[in-house]
Write a structure and sequence with these properties.
This protein is α+β, with helices and mostly antiparallel strands. Helix 1 runs antiparallel to helix 2. It is elongated and about 75 Å long.
């Protein structure tokens, strides 16, 4: 199974964990049923019960083994020393304000992008979000350190940028609560027909 975006991956996990949770609830229901009934479960019933528990354990562990390599950014992150990015953007943060290399960073879908983000004062977060508020990717930005993120965009549209790390109340307007570090449409990914990020 090949997942291109976090939305696809999370949808799959949502379905898998819902089924898994219902199976676990069935064990609790079976246990509760046997507590209240007058006739106790005979020893022969325990064999399928323990087999069912073994199935749940194997299913839970197997799910994680099956999906850890399907996460789209894992292999890229492991092999990043061998990857030459198509684009590189240098970004600085100071006093709760972004210093972007350009007003809108434009890349083509499928290109590998390196975001080099620095901070001169506090610990911030570098987070890209879709228009529906779901996160595309993020990293922590430590002051005076080299913070970089290699990312391949598999969906087109405009992505908003904001800090994902609390760095004090100055990130928000004291009267309206507005996020002052929110940059609308900071990244524009072009080159495909459907604008998933704009939905």
């Amino acid at each position: 199974m090949d997942f291109k975006t976090s939305v696809e991956l999370l949808s799959f996990h949502w379905m898998a964990y819902t089924i898994y949770a219902l199976l676990i609830i069935s064990v609790i229901a079976w246990f509760g049923f046997n507590l209240v009934r007058k006739e106790k479960a005979k020893s022969i019933v325990r064999i399928p019960f323990y087999g069912y528990i073994a199935f749940l354990v194997a299913g839970g562990v197997g799910h994680h083994i099956f999906t850890y390599n399907t996460i789209p950014w894992v292999a890229e992150d492991i092999m990043r020393h061998e990857i030459t990015p198509d684009h590189e953007f240098h970004i600085m943060i100071e006093k709760h304000r972004w210093k972007l290399p350009e007003e809108k960073m434009v890349v083509n879908v499928g290109e590998k992008v390196m975001f080099n983000v620095g901070s001169t004062d506090l610990t911030y977060g570098f987070g890209l979000f879709r228009k529906d508020g779901s996160m595309v990717t993020q990293m922590q930005v430590l002051p005076t350190r080299n913070n970089d993120l290699l990312w391949t965009f598999h969906e087109c549209g405009s992505f908003d940028l904001t800090s994902t790390e609390y760095a004090g109340p100055h990130q928000y307007d004291e009267h309206t609560g507005e996020d002052l570090m929110l940059v609308r449409d900071a990244v524009e990914v072009v080159g495909c027909n459907e604008k998933v990020a704009s939905k």
